[in-house]
Amino acid sequence: MTRNVVISGGGTGIGLAAAQMFAADGDRVLLLGRRGDVLERAGAGVPGASVYAADLADPVAVRGASGFVGREFGAVDVLIHSAGGNGLLEPPAGGDDPLDAVARHWTVNFRLNLLTAVLLTEALKDRLAEPGGRLLFLSSIAAYRGSGQLAYAAAKAGLHPYAHDLARKLGPHGITVNVVAPGYVEDTAFFGDGLDDERRARLIAETSDGRAGRPGDVAATLHWLASPGAAHITSQIIQVNGGAERGH
């Protein structure tokens, strides 16, 4: 059965890998993101994909995206929140005041990683298929251990209680809600221009299988959680990190 799949942050990395995987199953995929040119290029490589450019931290833009989903899809079978980032690619705060820089950094990270997911969920949750809807969030290993970017870690950790609350509320409607928390994943835009060799080696050394994660590793987990076989799995945080962080 063809499903309607909406993926935020679908233009690159994990979101794009997930889009390709669902499309390969014959599902209809909608890619959301801020950069229209990136979405158009990504959509050209995903069979039958639609794209819609929107800043998902802006309520007005989210209402526009929700209207598009209603017109094009109606019901949503799978909603995946892959949009986010560590804020390093955003413009810095103006001026030299260190508190201004801190406020800017934390605000940007919460907008990118938490507010985008909350606004899009609240706009579309009444469209989730009943029963059978799947709501999936992308967290991070950083949410468990902190990281050099503490604002990013805190923002990702904020997804966890939100997902647990939604799982309780939506469970009676036959909708599951889960979180996937990846470790270090290569071939994404997360580290901007790249990662120095020393840090890359250190991150890989933390794993039990001795390799970096790939977008397809996370996409496959999302795909499984959206499958009928995962119908009794909800309110869980699934770690995909090669053993760099053990289960909790």
From TrEMBL:
Superkingdom, natural source: Bacteria
Protein name listed in UniProt: SDR family NAD(P)-dependent oxidoreductase
Residues that span the membrane, as ranges: none
SUPFAM superfamilies given in the database record: NAD(P)-binding Rossmann-fold domains (SSF51735)
Keyword entries, A-Z: Oxidoreductase
Origin species: Streptomyces cathayae
Annotated Ketoreductase domain residues: 3-207
Protein family per UniProt: Belongs to the short-chain dehydrogenases/reductases (SDR) family.
Any GO molecular function: oxidoreductase activity
Principal EC category: oxidoreductase
